[in-house]
Predict the structure.
Amino acid sequence: MKKFLGGKLLVAAFLLLATYSLALAAPTSFQQVPPLKRIDVGPVQLATCVIPGKGVPILFIHGSWDDHNGWLPVARTLRQEVDNPMVLYDRRGHSASTNVAGQGHISDDVADAVELIQKLHLGAVHVVGHSYGSNVAIELVNNHPELAASLFLYEPPAFGILKHKPQYTSVLKEMKTSMLEAKALLEKGDIEEGTKAFVENVAFGKNSWENLFDERARSCMIANADTWLDQSRDKERLSIPVEKLRDFKKPMTLVSGDASLPVYQAIAVEMQKSIPALQVRHCKGAGHGGPVSDPQQVADFLKAHLARVAGQ
């Protein structure tokens, strides 16, 4: 009987040790999002969510109209597979972050990201951007390559790369007209109609206002409309020098949704031609809102990207 009990205890101890070892090896999941805290980055304070972990941090930069919630579905999904620290934040003038008076510029967003990295003592980070956040990410890498361990983009609106190419004249004209229509509505005070016009005609496609976004997301975009209106007056924001990425020698991935508006697919094609080291992947069935509508696919692409960096 004693031998039997001793054997059961030994087995139980082994199972406990094995479970403990697996717990140490598994990524730390987060059921509840850590609370937002404002980080002073000089002229503004950025509402920031820091998810602890091990390894090279991942910095998520959201797009126009949005806030840090835009990347949360991907971060949650990715967390099941990797244990990297993750930093999500609201860009200046968005949701819980503060803003300053006067005309903004994409360089302000880049400066904020640089200061945030330094304030949090992150070192070089995996820079991850969606939409306009991808343009910020590109400029961050272009101007501060020492702060970037890699670059991961989801559909940057780098329209400048399509200019002076006759095959894109009509699509660019259509995009400009739709932007001006949204801008005119916002300037008249029609903030919900202006926001919806941008969402459906410039970014995410017809019926996306109701079918892609929930009430929280729609309210967020309406609340951030003034920031986009200011941003729309920055002529350089969509004509960033993407070709400078040829000088960046670390892994780069661009993901494009195969159900996106044609202009975003064209940008992916032209960027791949211009930057041979850039790997382009296609998100099946997804549009410009892939990180929200298809977080599993986007997280899988990001996981593969991180694995490629680790394998160098």
